[in-house]
Amino acid sequence: MIKSMTLVILIAFACVTSSLCVVAQEDVAQFGRSDAGQSLLIRSTTDIAAFAPLMNAFLKANPEVSLRYEQWGSINLNELSATNCHEGKGVADLVISSAVDLQTKLINDGCAQPYVSSFTSQLPETQNWRNELFGLTYEPAVIIYNRLLLTADQIPRSRFDLIDGLRPLNSRLAGRVATYDIEESGLGYLFAFIDSQQANTFGRLMEAFGRSGAVATCCSAEIIDAVSYGSYLIGYNVLGSYALSRAETDPNIGVLAPADYTLVLSRSAYIPRNATNSALAKRFLDFALSPAGRQALRETRLIVNFSGDDADIDLPGGAAANLRLIPLSPRLLVGLDQHKRRIFLDLWRQNLEAK
Amino acid sequence: MRAPRPPISLTARLAFAGLLIVVVGGLLVTFLAWTYGQRAAQEAFDRLLLGAADQISASIRFSDSELLVDLPTTAFDLLALSRNDRVVYRVARATGETLTGYDQVAFPDALNSQQFYDGEITGEAARFVALPRYFAERDFSGSTITIVGHTRQARNALAWDIMQNAWFILLLAGFGMTALALFAIRSALEPLRRVSHHLLALDPDDLAPIALNVPRELTAFITAFNRFAGRIDRQMQVMQDFIADSAHQLRTPIAALRATTRNAVEDAQNSEVKHELEKIDAQAVRLGHLTDQLLSHALVIHRADAGKLVPLDLRQVAIDSVDIVDVLVPKGQHIRLELPESPLMIDGDTLSLVEAVKNLMSNALNHGEPPFEIEVVKIDNTARLHVRDHGAGVSAAGWRQNARRFSREPGRSGVGGLGLAIVRSVALAHGAQIEVSKGSDAFQVTLVFSLKQDVTGEDPYD
Fold first, then answer.
1. pLDDT tens for residues B60-79?
2. What Å distances lie between residue B304 and A42, B22, B242, B301, B352, CA to CA?
3. pLDDT at B45
4. Are the Cβ atoms of B69 and A340 closer than 8 angstroms?
């Protein structure tokens, strides 16, 4: 474990210093005019396409600005940000990541600068820690299912349904439920860890997964693809933004928010302490929190609407009280603790590997 | 040389003392509130820190021959109560080898007992607690140290909050105290104010003891004042008696002197000697007149002191006065008397009043021009007695100047100036006002009495 972390750090190091690096960023996009007076560097884990409407809207309001958007893997981005923080150079102006636990640790280590505006102070406490870390999005962890292969009564509306559905020895679901491999996916780990704190359901769910041979796999896209093809019937704890976007074009994919409770992730942003252009970053942050910015995020389902006429998703239980936003707080540090992580992963492995 | 500064007023002294109490008290309370707030915040959050450390320490277990920390979320729930504070923790063997958490967190000085200490988390002031735990397992015997620290934002906020609350109460108390102090100052100084009002309202001639009911602290002052006034009063009395006695004693020799000089004037052969003798005679006449006035003044004052005022008709006073003055009126002149039809009753002493009117009239006769008039009228609740002549008169201020006792000013005062002093004494004794008015062709002195309210006196002429 420690060895592999060191390796990642070394690679990240190499990326900062060498342009030949391939592991570093996954993708880069340049927005705005090349002759623009000011430029803003955003490093994010979000797909460029999902964030493009927000950035285009921002540039429309601020035509004198150009914007470089680097898409990173969450672990790599965290390593880079931590290194930047300690060395104080080569920093982005704004860091946005779905790995809110890692982001929280960076804030806890004093890597961010505070910012207070009318927009940031409107955020609820759970989406604003120390005026340094701000939750921009509202994305539920959902259950997706294959609409062709599952009948309405076979669709699990809650974790209890899922546990019950997995129980029969000859269950159709056996071996065809997929979830993140939490050893590989930071987000999967975060969801699972928070799940384990929410209810006893999680222990039973892990047992059921273990018994029925659920599959742990890598990433959102992979799980969604597999459910669409029918190789898996159900995907558990898939990030709602991706699932809903996909469901729009893919009739095979059904999306539902578990009725017992639904975790909600708020992708978080912070302005690094040594940001080159922090003034512009603040402007971008304010825009992202403004009604226009939120509208742009809604377009790509980064903000999911649970109520009203234009609701994006059904809550079978119906009650908004079952939405549990993962609060930005030092509590998220617990899951990052070396021992805690080891203990949790051991438990996970024991359950999923034991037949 | 500069004039000495007047001493600071009592109000200012008291107010200054009050202000001093409020300011010094305020500073003291601020200081106490701040230290108290800091201590309270320190204790509250130290307990929180200790609670978290305790939970973490309790979660250390020995499994498969290694120490494993199953970090409890509840410990971080506790720490998250100070919402905006950054948190660090470290679980280590006492030997220094970190089990989990932040490597950088420094050990405290002593490792053998629970300990709170101050430090830093990446440049920000922070508070730490270190908690040892001892193990005696088959494979491991030794101790671990659990260190938990957080930044001080919530502590400072709480201390500040406590201080603000204290300040708020202090502000209220300050207002209250100021109001109370003002009230206290006013009520403490009230008797003084009463005494000074009383003294100011006193008649210049009133030397009677002050009979005010004053607080103990002022009785010494009042007693001293009364003693002093009494001494003056007695001296005045002695002097008046002396003057009256002397005047009385002098009357006979003066009468004899006059008779002698009269005879001498008539018998004198030498015109030069005769002229000198006439001068002596004139002076003897003046001397006699003055002696009379001295006596009459003493009489008036005596009667006033006796204080026996009885209901009387002011018209009668006028009539009696004219009767007496009539002999002084030069030939071919007379005094016109104007009286109302019904009686005007006042409280008074006829003898004194007649003496006063007589003196006013003789003053008019000596210095004014005819016709001479005495008029009694009723205006509203006052009875007025005018003595009027048609000479040039003097100004009101000049008249008052002359009315002072033993005035030596020449002019309209009687011989030796005692006449108007008598008028003034009588007016004072009757509580009457003296009004002096000077018109274009008339000069008038008026005595204004308040009418006796309830008694409708019978008209003695009916």
1. 998 878 889 999 999 999 99
2. 110, 56, 18, 5, 8
3. 93
4. yes
Residues A179 and A202 in one domain: yes
Instruction: Look up the CATH number of domain B216-299.
Output: 1.10.287.130
pLDDT in tens, A292-306: 999 999 988 899 888
CATH number at residue A180: 3.40.190.10
Write out chain B residues lying below 8 Å of A326, CB-based: none
Nearest CA-CA partner of A208 in A234, A229, A184? A234
Within 8 A by CB and 6+ apart from B456, the residues are B345
Rounded percentage of chain B residues whose pLDDT exceeds 90: 17
Q: Which CATH superfamily is domain B309-450 in?
A: Histidine kinase-like ATPase, C-terminal domain (3.30.565.10)
Q: In Å, how far are A130, A330, B429 from B77, measured between CA atoms?
A: 16, 8, 95
Report yes or no: A343 at the B interface, CB cutoff 8 Å: yes
* Facing residue for B101 by CB, picked from A129, A329, A337: A337
pLDDT tens profile B425-444: 888 888 888 888 887 788 88
- Looking at chain A, which residue has its C-alpha nearest residue B153? A130
In the predicted structure, residue B413 carries a pLDDT above the cut 60: no
Reported confidence tier of residue B125, pLDDT bands at 50, 70, 90: very high
Contact B76 A330 (CB under 8 A): yes
Decide if A273 touches B, using CB distance below 8 A: no
- Whether A125 maps to a domain, the answer reads yes
Q: Complex ipTM above 0.95?
A: no
Select from B100, B101, B124 the Cβ nearest to the Cβ of A110.
Answer: B124
Rounded CA gap, B88 and B151, in Å?
9
Task: Tell me whether residue A304 is in a domain.
Answer: no
Are A129 and B84 inside 8 Å of each other by CB?
Answer: yes
Give the CA distances from residue B262 to residues A216, A334, B251, B253, in Å, rounded to whole numbers and listed in that order: 159, 139, 16, 14
Give yes or no: residues A117 and A221 share one domain: no
Residues A54-106 pLDDT 10s: 999 999 999 899 999 999 988 889 999 999 998 887 789 999 999 999 999 99
Flag if B100 and A130 touch (Cβ within 8 Å): no
Q: Taking 50 as the threshold, does the pLDDT of residue B243 lie above it?
A: yes
Give the span between the Cα atoms of B38 and B36, in whole angstroms: 5
DSSP letter (8 states) at residue A218? S
- Per-residue pLDDT for B47 more than 90? yes
Specify the fold of B11-160. Beta-Lactamase (3.30.450)
CB contact under 8 A, A337 and B71: yes
Interchain pair B68, A110: CB under 8 A = no
Instruction: Report which DSSP code applies to A322.
Output: G
Q: Mean pLDDT in chain A?
A: 85
Greatest alpha-carbon pair distance for chain A in Å reads: 65
Interface A:B, Cβ pairs < 8 A: 54
**Can you name the residues that pair with A133 across neighbouring β-strands?**
A129
A132 to chain B: nearest residue by CA? B84
Contact yes or no for A330 and B121 at CB 8 A: no
Q: Is B88 helix (H, G, I), strand (E, B) or coil?
A: strand
Using 50, 70 and 90 to split pLDDT, how confident is the model at A316?
low
Q: Which domain holds residue A226?
A: 139-264+310-353
> B161-198 burial by CB neighbour count: b if 16+ within 10 A, else e?
ebbeebbeebeeebeebeeebeeebeeeeebeeebeee
Token pair, residue B130, equals: 């270190």
CA distance A243 to chain B (A): 30
| Global pTM value | 0.67
DSSP-assigned letter for residue B204: T
Enumerate residues 317 to 336 of chain A having a beta carbon within 8 A of any beta carbon in chain B: 329-331, 333-334
Give the pLDDT band (50/70/90) at residue B414. very low
